[in-house]
Amino acid sequence: MEKDQDIILNEVTQSEYKYGFVTDIESDSIPKGLNEEVIRLISEKKNEPEWMLEFRLKAFAHWKTMKNPNWAMLKIPEIDYQDIVYYSAPKQKKQLNSLDEVDPELLDTFNKLGIPLEEQKLLTGVAVDAVMDSVSVKTTFKKNLADLGIIFCSFSEAVQEYPDLVKKYMGTVVPYRDNYFAALNSAVFSDGSFVYIPKGVRCPMELSTYFRINAANTGQFERTLIVADDDSYVSYLEGCTAPMRDENQLHAAIVEIIALENAEVKYSTVQNWYPGDKDGKGGIYNFVTKRGLCKGRNSKISWTQVETGSAITWKYPSCILKGDDSIAEFYSVAVTNNHQQADTGTKMIHLGKNTKSTIVSKGISAGKSNNSYRGLVRVAKNASNARNFSQCDSLLLGDQCGAHTFPYLEVDNSSAIVEHEATTSKIGEDQIFYCNQRGISTEDAIGLIVNGYAKEVINQLPMEFAVEAQKLLQISLEGSVG
Amino acid sequence: MLSIKDLHASIQGKEILRGLSLEVKAGEVHAIMGPNGSGKSTLASVLTGRDLFEVTHGEITFEGQDIGEWAPEDRARAGIFLGFQYPIEIPGVSMTNFMRTALNETRKAQNLEPLSSKEFLQRMREKKELVEIDSKLTNRSVNEGFSGGEKKRNEIFQMAMLEPKLAILDETDSGLDIDALRIVANGVNRLKTPENATIVITHYQRLLDYIIPDFVHVLYEGRIVMSAGKELALELEEKGYDWIKKQVDNPLITL
Q1: CB contact under 8 A, A453 and B97
Q2: Lowest mean per-residue pLDDT among A237-251, A380-394, A435-449
Q3: Does the structure show a pLDDT above 50 at A9?
Q4: What is the pLDDT of residue A139?
Q5: How confident is the model at residue A101 (pLDDT cuts 50, 70, 90)?
Q6: Closest Cα to residue B176, out of B83, B252, B78?
Q7: Residue B56 maps to which CATH number?
Q8: Pairwise CB contact (< 8 Å): A438 & B72
Q9: Rounded to whole angstroms, how far apart are CA atoms A183 and A261?
Q10: Which residues, at least 6 apart from A332, have a Cβ–Cβ distance to it below 8 Å?
């Protein structure tokens, strides 16, 4: 019987990756390898001011003194940083009449991914910045947003158009010295999104960035910076996919969020990088540093992530609760299947008084995968009346996968209240049979059970994406249960 | 409707059913009684296709089709419903979502359009009244935190929603107080039509005071050893299962 169950589990978890196609488009790439010359070249291609190049070079010098981190519960094969292309831009074929025009080939690609870039076809209420490999292809609804004083553009454009804002905030939440991958990103980052919400403005639409890796042997190093000024609000969503390739590809991003007084930022991720095939060949290494700073009093930052892709995920979206009365939240569903590995979680650093953080993490492991939650809650000496609630649940499908929880607590203020709950469960044969007996197939039963389990997190996503995320959870586990 | 011929089934090499035969026609209510370990629950599991059990011999036909190799969900969609002795909890999955998926999957198999939200909720309301189930239960996760009685009532509610051709109720009376028993039995009686059939599996006679069977079968050591009308249940109650055991083990004494 257990054998049968494994067979079914296998069938359910082994479906094909839907976004694995390659766009046949010429690209403008620089040669492989990483050195000062390459960094100067990237900066030159982007026509960057001197201060930006300096930032990159300082980061690179520091990176050379650092080592790959190895404390995570991950088996990371050695990465040859000289064997990676650090800049690749799709070449737009024909002469374009206006800046807003996009090569039809690229429009096609994003259409195929379900992200139409023509504004009239877009989901109403969602503005998109589409990034392929190292450059932003198009940002929609820019003008409508500009009327409200909202800046939503590619990072490269921001460097040119809003250098003061970039200079003021870049690297203030994630300094280039922060960690190995942050230093690497700071040296070679290519594109990403920049968001600025002015004082008192509630952004009327969801802002979203869609990242696509297309070119082979290329790394993607995007950088996103979101600044919400006093009394403002924005909800931001990030999605990502990549073609199926036998080689591993590196994605090392930085996301920085700054929330000033009374500002609120909701950041949601649906991460669906190519996870590799069922034997563990290929897939994206997703090594990302995401951090938010609740800088002003009464500010709020909330991370929601649905992580289904990538061969290896190393990612801890964190919050620094600096402003008094600030609030931080982290909601996560991480699915690993086949040979995927994920070590993900969060850090909540309480510095201000009366600060409150909530952590809800739901891990789902199937196949031969390993899924770890790693979380730190730190309450500093002066952070009186800090509150944290953490809940870490693990769900196992089959008996060859692993789930691990590593909670760290550092409390230096006796008025803090910190709670931690953890559970581990398995989808039982009896639960599946019960669903079967009501006419529900095993695959649908697993979908129901998994989505029920992840509901608390999915509910945090903007409506349009919650439905997508639900489907994605089910697809990611297809072939995993029987 | 259902025809079982010389059915043998085992679990981990141990034979539980040893040549069981049974005919059930539309409109009939059959009670299957028997001492503990006689194979009553195994019969329910085998009929619904649970793969814990291996059918080693015999035939199960449902509406003229041999369903011996069918997957559990296909049997369910064809109209076989099992009221579980121990209903399973599924945390996080709302009863509404669960029922809607179940109903629409079943309709799909019958080439029917899925019900609209409005139609579905309407049906929920009607059936809730029919089986006197508390409205709040259907707002919760499937069986999660339900009391024993609530779980059993929820089974009858699901049966009402799915309108099966053949309902198998496995020890539905166990763990019920007399009021809950009456409610559950009323539900079953109301759902009875000339087109459907019910198999009531029970250890005790008391449920049969409320659900009046057309036939009573006694299961012992994996076979039906005695079949008669509803009066057999009363006789069993009076004489106990030892009476059956003696008859079967030493047939000459009673002859």
Answers
A1: no
A2: A237-251
A3: no
A4: 74
A5: low
A6: B83
A7: 3.40.50.300
A8: no
A9: 29
A10: A303, A304, A305, A306, A307, A317, A344, A345, A346, A360, A361, A362, A373, A457
Query: Chain B residue closest to A431 (CA)?
Result: B88
Burial class (CB in 10 A: 0-12, 13-18, 19+), B172: buried
A183: Cα within 13 Å, side-chain hemisphere: 17
| Structure-block tokens of residue B5 | 């011929």
CA distances from A26 to A31, A246, A273, B8, B119 (A): 15, 21, 22, 67, 53
Report how many domains make up chain B.
1
Q: For A295-351, where are the E strands, in sequence order?
A: 300-307, 312-315, 318-321, 327-336, 341-350
Higher pLDDT, A402 or A232: A232
**pLDDT confidence tier of residue A337, bands split at 50, 70 and 90:** confident
- CA gap A380, A378 in Å, rounded: 6
Residue written as tokens 């690179």? A60
CA–CA separation, A474 vs A479, rounded Å? 10
Total-model pTM: 0.81
The stretch A8-24 carries a mean pLDDT of 61
| Interface touch B109/A441, C-beta < 8 Å | no
Q: Do B102 and A440 touch (CB under 8 A)?
A: yes
- CB contacts, 8 Å: A438 with chain B: 76, 98, 102, 158, 162
pLDDT, tens digit, 9 for 90 and up, residues A176-204: 999 999 999 999 998 889 999 999 999 98
Q: Which two tokens stand for residue B30?
A: 């059959």
Taking the C-alpha atoms of residue A71 and residue A343, their distance in angstroms, rounded to an integer, is: 10
The answer to whether the CB atoms of B102 and A439 lie below 8 A apart is yes
Q: How open is the CA angle A390-A395-A398, to the nearest 5 degrees? A: 160
| ipTM computed for the complex | 0.94
Task: Tell me which residue in B51, B72, B92 faces A455 most closely, judged by beta carbons.
Answer: B92
Interface-testing mutation among A425, A438, A440, with chain B (most B C-beta atoms within 10 A): A438
- By the 8 A CB rule, do B200 and B208 touch? yes
* Four-residue CA torsion sign, A110, A114, A118, A123: negative
Q: Which residue of A has its CA nearest to B85?
A: A434
Classify residue B122: in a domain, yes or no: no
What does the pLDDT look like over A75-94, one tens digit per residue? Answer: 988 889 998 888 887 776 55
Give the model's confidence band at A1: pLDDT under 50 very low, under 70 low, under 90 confident, else very high.
very low
Is B179 domain-assigned? Answer: yes
pLDDT in tens, B1-19: 999 999 999 999 899 999 9
Q: Which residues contact A372 (CB under 8 A, 6 or more apart)?
A: A72, A73, A74, A342, A343, A344, A345, A363, A403, A404, A405, A406
pLDDT digits (tens, 9 = 90+) for B81-116: 999 999 999 988 999 999 999 999 999 998 999 999
Of B37, B48, B49, B106, nearest to B78 by C-alpha is: B106
Domain region containing B59: 2-91+163-249
Q: What angle do CA A305, A310, A312 make, to 5 degrees?
A: 100
Binary contact (A439, B141; C-beta < 8 A): no
Query: Residue A24 has what pLDDT?
Result: 72
Q: Is residue B141 part of a domain?
A: no
B101 part of contact set with chain A, CB < 8 Å: yes
User: What amino acid occupies position A4?
Assistant: D
In a domain, B41, yes or no: yes
By CA distance, what is B92's nearest residue in A?
A452
Q: Is A4 an interface residue toward B (CB < 8 Å)?
A: yes
HSE toward the beta carbon, residue B189, CA cutoff 13 A: 15
CB-CB under 8 Å, B88 with A430: yes
> Closest Cα to residue A384, out of A363, A406, A412, A410?
A412
- Tell the residue number behind the tokens 């998926």, with chain if given: B101
Q: Tokens at residue A304, please?
A: 């929601």
- The domain ranges of chain A are 2-477
Average pLDDT over residues B156-180: 90
